[in-house]
Amino acid sequence: TVTLCGTTVSVLYFARSAELAGLRCETLSVPREITSLQLWEEIVKVHPRLAVIRDQVIFAVRQEYVHLGDQLLVLQPGDEVAIIPPISGG
Prior knowledge:
The protein is an alpha+beta fold. The protein has two helices and seven strands; from the N terminus they run βαββαββββ. A five-stranded mixed sheet has the order 2-1-7-4-5. Strands 3-6 form a two-stranded antiparallel ribbon. The mean pLDDT is 90. Heterotetramer; composed of 2 small (MOCS2A) and 2 large (MOCS2B) subunits. Belongs to the MoaD family. MOCS2A subfamily. This is Molybdopterin synthase sulfur carrier subunit. GO terms for molecular function: molybdopterin synthase activity; nucleotide binding.
């Protein structure tokens, strides 16, 4: 995929997402303007095992919760994207 206006973001993985991804944080290069769902798909391309938590995951961009869907994100270099799976128990 060629991105004309890409940026690098920090992706943080918590709990089960960290187990599935095999790491707690990394930087990824993604398009600057991207929907939240497309951003999730970019992350799953790198870590296919994350696909199993898609329906339960909470996404946070710059410490604000985002639903996976058509919401357009305009990312800045160094933005933090957190992948927060559901907390078990209850």
